[in-house]
Specification:
about 120 residues
């Protein structure tokens, strides 16, 4: 069983991995040890109901680089969301973003956080 600190370190490594694929056509050198990052991303996407992303990450016909390029903002959000849950004393990254810069998925999650904090009525 992993501890809190190592889980956070692993999530930061995945976040750095995703940053390498940020932008169209970016294809950094891939290391087979990073396969676990793709598995974690697939599981996070599946857990959040983003089946289209998890399906792409599981499909051997689709290059994972293309999936990471295409869905990078959402995948990056999933990692930052997981990190914010491990660091509840830190303000969630979404609260520092302008709504016009959010993806649709981020905006939906943002509204969910506002409802949880009773800022918005259900």
């Amino acid at each position: 069983m992993t501890d809190h600190s190592s889980t956070m370190q692993d999530l930061y490594k995945i976040q750095d991995f995703l940053f390498q694929y940020e932008g169209i056509g970016k294809k950094p050198e891939y290391d087979e040890n990073q396969q676990v990052y793709l598995q974690v991303l697939r599981l996070l996407a599946e857990d959040k109901g983003l089946h289209f992303i998890s399906k792409e990450l599981s499909d051997p016909e689709i290059k994972f680089e293309d999936t990471l390029n295409r869905w990078n903002p959402i995948l990056t959000f999933l990692i930052s969301d997981a990190l914010s849950q491990l660091e509840p004393d830190k303000k969630h990254k979404l609260f520092s973003k302008q709504i016009s810069e959010m993806t649709g998925y981020e905006f939906r999650e943002y509204l969910g956080y506002l409802k949880e904090e009773n800022v918005l009525k259900r």
